[in-house]
Design brief:
- This protein is of the alpha+beta class and 159 residues long.
- Helices cover 17% and strands 42% of the residues.
- It contains two helices and ten strands; from the N terminus they run αββββββββαββ.
- The chain has helices spanning 2-24, 122-125, and strands at residues 40-41, 44-45, 53-63, 68-75, 81-88, 94-100, 106-112, 117-121, 133-140, 147-155.
- The strands form two sheets. A five-stranded mixed β-sheet has the order 1-4-9-6-7, with no helix packed on it. A five-stranded antiparallel β-sheet has the order 2-3-10-5-8.
- Strand 2 (44-45) and strand 3 form a beta hairpin.
- The longest helix is centred in the N-terminal third of the chain and has 23 residues, at 2-24.
């Protein structure tokens, strides 16, 4: 009986130690403007599975009469497993780069042919996940105007 009581107390203590910090930090994601010419997208919790993933970039079309365009997004702490999807709708190849603002670390650098799509998953190159914080996205084409559909998600687990 005494062993069972100790086991229950230890189990409840462990559960509280894991749950309380998660509850305290649940709404602590802060979104800040890093550059006035780039839109910051506020993370939105998924209504399908609110504890598994969040939308960090809703499906958005980045088109320009220029050969360059930019965007930005925020990865909240604890949601470092990212998936970014790009679809080049333009007439020329587009180079896409995604860079972590605080460290300068470049997570994505890819050239996407006209009409092609590319999906990047952090778990492939960064099994420990992406760093939390602000990210800049740059779209550049040397031959035509930029026209790219882009969306992204972040998860608190690899699966």
């Amino acid at each position: 009986m005494m062993k069972q009581t100790k086991f229950i107390v230890l189990t409840l203590t462990l559960a509280a130690a894991l749950t309380i910090p998660a509850i305290i930090n649940a709404d602590s994601a802060e979104v800040t403007q890093t550059e006035s010419n780039l839109p910051i997208v506020t993370p939105v919790m998924s209504t399908e599975s609110p504890n598994d993933f969040i939308v960090i970039v809703p499906l958005t079309n980045y088109s320009s009469t220029d050969t360059s365009a930019g965007s930005a997004f925020v990865v909240p702490g604890g949601f470092g497993y990212g998936k970014l999807h790009f679809h080049n709708l333009g007439k020329g190849a587009v180079t896409v780069t995604v860079q972590h603002v605080a460290t300068g670390l470049e997570y994505v650098a890819v050239n996407i042919a006209p009409g092609a799509e590319y999906t990047w998953r952090s778990s492939t190159q960064y099994p420990q996940g992406m760093r939390s914080g602000d990210y800049n996205v740059q779209f550049h084409s040397s031959t035509a105007a930029v026209n790219v559909d882009f969306d992204g998600y972040a998860s608190n687990s690899v699966t």
